[in-house]
Amino acid sequence: MTRSSVLARESLGPTVTVGEILVEIMATTIGAGFLDPQPLVGPFPSGAPAIFIDQVARIGGAAGIVAAVGDDDFGVLNVGRLRADGVDVSAIATVSGKPTGSAFVRYRPDGARDFVFNIAHSAAGDTRMTEAARALIGRAGHVHVMGSAFAIPGIAAILVEAVAMVKARGGSVSFDPNIRKELVQSGEGQRLVDDMLAATDLLLPSGDELLVAAGAATEAAAIERLLGLGVGEIVLKRGAEGSSHFSTAFGRIDCPAFRVEEIDPTGAGDCFGAAYLTCRRAGLPPAAALLYANAAGARTVTKQGPMEGVSSKAELDLFIAAAGREVFP
């Protein structure tokens, strides 16, 4: 028997996520790697879970994050940004003796990027299920899981506990399987993904992540398998090709992308997912939520810095109208 899978309404409690907070520092030159001195710009607040939860708050949802930062300027920068945008930061721990996570980024001529990360050995690697974290999760109505967080020691266990706590009070779960194929090739990694899929109400894959998550060879087979497992909604991010919603209740819905000049793609998928989820939790139908999500992702890439293009609902309404499109209820 297929389990019931419905996104919890906003009234049940905030959307909560768990994972890395970091700063991003970008090279202003185009090239390969960081083997030579070069000019840099930043630091910008970053981290996929932090970008996601910041967009949830900016578009009007109640939001909180379980994370850890260092006792340094980068930690102050991130926590201040999240707090100013309306995120509950009560469960962000400050870890003495370890730096806030960081990512140095440089674009190659073909648009690909080289990264130098310090995440697992930063304060992010000391993220724990504290009393403040349990209190935040205990009143949550929804938990969002980032697959990338599985690579950070200890965070997978927190996410598993958070999912169980939120489900027990009638809440829901979304899962962005931002994962490498290597992770699911290990027995433990595949079990983590399978356990999350078994609890997922909204799946937010990009491209081939859909096939990896489902263990299927084609899009159609992946959709059929995942809906059969009880996933309530699948929203596939197609980049410049827009996005698609799949569910038993609404069928397939496609939404074309907005055409913009891309400056920095970092965070586009996180903002897309946050906008879609928050709109659905607020009661909007999938077609309207897809339109807002596409607009949020598109607007994000027009700004340099992962959170610099995070949008309010009013800003998205103006963006959609300027493109000659309309939100239908």
Write up what this structure looks like.
The protein has 329 residues and is an alpha/beta fold. 36% of the residues lie in helices and 21% in strands. The chain is built from 11 helices and 13 strands. Strands 5-4-1-8-9-10-11-12-13 form a 9-stranded mixed sheet, sandwiched between helices. Strands 3-2-6-7 form a 4-stranded mixed sheet. Helix 1 (48-58) packs across helix 9 (268-281), helix 4 (155-168) packs parallel to helix 6 (187-199) and helix 9 (268-281) runs antiparallel to helix 10 (286-300). It starts with 14 loop residues before the first strand and ends in a 7-residue tail after the last helix.
Major sheet description: 9 strands, mixed
Strand content: 15-25%
Mean pLDDT: 91
What is the terminal separation in angstroms? 32 Å
- State the order of secondary-structure elements, H for helix, E for strand: EEEHEHEEEHEHEHHEHHEEEHHH
Q: Specify the number of helices.
A: 11
Give the overall shape, derived from the CA principal axes.
globular
